[in-house]
């Protein structure tokens, strides 16, 4: 039986990037459906996503902003109806979304249970590395596995992996929480270098606030995981 690949794209106020993101994955032959979950955007994300012509694309709009974890859970309930392989992609990848093919190939070749995109170095100075270091060291501490892309939201999963989760962790800690659980369950993860780019936060107030929220959410998820897996 041929695999059925569903890609879930949670999007919040991505009117500038969502069109390019969709245009550059809609013709990837291996992908069967693309689920855009507009997480209560206040801009034209839904309208622009629906303007992209493809029978694969299905757009769902949440009544208000509920966070990435909620949007992923919403999309998963739909994807699980048919999919044997499920991918998560961010809405701001733009034309680089076509790099998803580099993630799909190894999952089809059964090289691992989960494939995570490893991005090239950021083009501009971001934070001081606290969040990335926290994520990497925490995953290593709890699982014994050293991964570089623990924060990456670009992931492809075998269906059986996601069936182990009643729901995705919420908040900015979703990727770290999932990574720990996946490894603890005994599944394998492979990181693949891609030439993807997305919106970067700089060393300004907005950037530091974002990273502060990330740090807080990751710490919260880590406390929960230590209780669950002790």
In short:
With 230 residues, the protein is an alpha/beta fold.
Descriptive report:
- With 230 residues, the chain is α/β, with parallel strands linked by helices.
- It has one domain (5-228): Spore Coat Polysaccharide Biosynthesis Protein SpsA, Chain A, CATH 3.90.550.
- It has eight helices and seven strands.
- It has helices at residues 18-23, 45-51, 68-79, 101-108, 130-143, 159-162, 174-184, 205-228, and strands spanning 5-11, 31-38, 57-61, 85-88, 114-118, 155-158, 189-193.
- Strands 3-2-1-4-6-5-7 form a seven-stranded mixed beta sheet, with helices on both faces.
- The model has no long low-confidence stretch (mean pLDDT 90).
């Amino acid at each position: 039986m041929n695999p059925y690949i569903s890609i879930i794209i949670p999007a919040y106020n991505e009117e500038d990037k969502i069109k390019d993101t969709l245009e550059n994955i809609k013709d990837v032959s291996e992908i069967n459906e693309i689920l855009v979950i507009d997480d209560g955007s206040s801009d034209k994300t839904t309208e622009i996503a629906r303007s992209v012509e493809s029978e694969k694309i299905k757009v769902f709009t949440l009544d208000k902003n509920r966070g990435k974890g909620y949007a992923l859970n919403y999309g998963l309930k739909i994807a699980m109806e048919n999919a044997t392989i499920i991918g998560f992609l961010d809405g701001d990848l733009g034309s680089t979304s076509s790099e998803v093919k580099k993630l799909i190939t190894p999952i089809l070749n059964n090289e691992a249970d989960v494939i995570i995109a490893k991005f090239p170095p950021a083009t501009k100075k971001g934070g001081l590395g606290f969040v990335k270091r926290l994520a990497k060291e925490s995953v290593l501490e709890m699982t014994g596995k050293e991964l570089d892309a623990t924060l990456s939201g670009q992931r492809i999963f075998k269906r059986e992996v996601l069936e182990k989760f009643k729901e995705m962790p919420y908040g900015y800690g979703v990727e770290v929480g999932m990574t720990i659980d996946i490894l603890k369950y005994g599944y394998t993860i492979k990181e693949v270098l891609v030439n993807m780019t997305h919106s970067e936060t700089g060393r300004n107030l907005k950037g530091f606030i974002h990273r502060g929220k990330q740090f807080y959410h990751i710490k919260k998820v880590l406390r929960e995981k230590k209780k669950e897996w002790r």
